[in-house]
Amino acid sequence: LKQYWSARERAFARWRALQHMQDENAGPGLESMVTNDARTMFNMAVFLSSSIPPKRTVNIGGQGTRQERKAGQSERAVESWWAAQDELRLRSGLEPFREELAYWLCLYGGYAVMYGMDTKGVPFAKPLNPAYAYPQYAEGLQRFIYSYPTTLAEARLIANKYGMEIKGRDDLQKVEVAEWWHRDDGYCHHAIVASGVGRGWVFLAEPEEIAVENIPVLCGPVAGSPSRTPDAQEEAGSVYYENERVYKDFNRWLSFLMRLS
Predict the structure, then answer these.
(1) Are 117 and 124 spatial neighbours (Cβ–Cβ below 8 Å)?
(2) DSSP SS3 for 19
(3) Per-residue pLDDT at 61 exceeds 80
């Protein structure tokens, strides 16, 4: 799947370079300049996208005071759940859900959110980094791999959650974790593996078959081209897609002017 999404990977790398204000015109003994327009515009886009809470309306059917009261209770319960989710994220050193989702939407023009219920039966929604998400579609999400770098300490926590053990003493050792989902005939197959903790890939969660019809991930692009063919992968809705050449040309001309002066 990584090979299939290679065009998207190249676009993501270019957009990250713009966000990080990477100087592409620097040279030995030469003046160059990078404006901060690309970064400040990105920060403003994230702020505008996440500053206003979404309006959540629960329709329980029917009319009248009793139905309105039930709908109000349900809506307040949803608001409380979102507040609880953000509190849990704050304790884990994470940004609020809306801010992280807006960040990925503006940077990559796409989203990936894993959802489900924890062991206590409480629903959860977890934004994922779209740069590490590799979907395959066939009448819905057919296969999904989330492959990301992390530490040995986090990989060990994942393994312990599924009753597995991994070796290693350096908790800060870099490892690669890949969570794999595949939908097949009314079931979803799931496994988690890691590399860098032994020879080859080792299981953090052994393969299992889950009786659910859909992979519990929402993943896709926003805005940009409606085409989903490989040649359109770079036309996602990132704030940098339309302005990429403008920023680069402006930085190049400013660098030329500095050298002439």
Answers:
(1) yes
(2) helix
(3) no
Digit-coded pLDDT (tens) for 118-153:
878 888 889 999 999 999 988 889 999 999 999 999
Q: Let me know: does 127 contact 104? Beta carbons within 8 Å.
A: yes
Check residues 259 and 112 and name the one with the higher pLDDT. Answer: 112
Tell me the CA distances in angstroms from 33 to 240, 245, 253, 257, 259, one per residue in order: 19, 16, 9, 10, 10
3-state secondary structure of 140: coil
Burial pattern 6-15, b for ≥16 Cβ within 10 A else e, equals eebeebbebb
Give the Cβ contact number of residue 193 at 10 Å.
Answer: 20
Element (H, E) at 183: strand 174-184
Give 188's contacts (C-beta < 8 A, 6+ positions apart): 181, 182, 209, 210, 212, 213, 214, 215, 216
* Range 101-128 average pLDDT: 89
Say how far apart CA 164 and CA 170 lie, in whole Å.
18
- For the four alpha carbons of 48, 50, 51 and 52, in that order, the dihedral sign comes to positive
Q: Which residues contact 84 (CB under 8 A, 6 or more apart)?
A: none
